[in-house]
Design goal:
By secondary structure, the chain is α+β, with helices and mostly antiparallel strands. It contains three helices and four strands; from the N terminus they run βββααβα. Strands 1-2-3-4 form a four-stranded mixed β-sheet.
């Protein structure tokens, strides 16, 4: 199944992201994923990440054969932020463990480029 983002509607502090799905040999389906916008602020997540996060949530719900309404929850955003922080920590750690140049030992020839 392939999901396609179709836009959003907003009512007060709730945004509803709309998706369409197409699967070979099946009629097109429409889905919506709602989210309380205050959760983006609470978890310091950019509003531009909303469609992607909702698509991931919808994909997981459909794979789990979840029927009914789809909603991006506080727990979903907390898990996303934790995963993002862990990925940034791994990236920072890999930069720190890179090869380091050592000072030449006494008596070794020194390149004019060494400083």
């Amino acid at each position: 199944m392939e999901l396609r983002y179709m836009g959003f509607d907003q009512s007060q502090n709730k945004r509803v992201y709309k998706f369409g799905s197409t699967a070979t040999g099946e009629p097109a389906s429409r889905f919506v994923v709602s989210v309380d916008l205050s959760l983006f602020l609470k978890h310091h997540v950019h509003i531009q990440e909303g469609p992607t996060l909702c698509a991931l949530k919808l994909t997981a719900d459909l794979e789990a054969q979840h029927e009914g309404d789809h909603e991006l929850t506080n727990e979903d955003l907390a898990a996303y932020v934790a995963d993002r922080a862990a990925a940034e920590a791994r990236k920072a750690e890999s930069r720190r463990r890179g090869p380091r140049r050592r000072k030449p030992e006494a008596g070794q020839p020194v390149s004019p480029w060494w400083r």
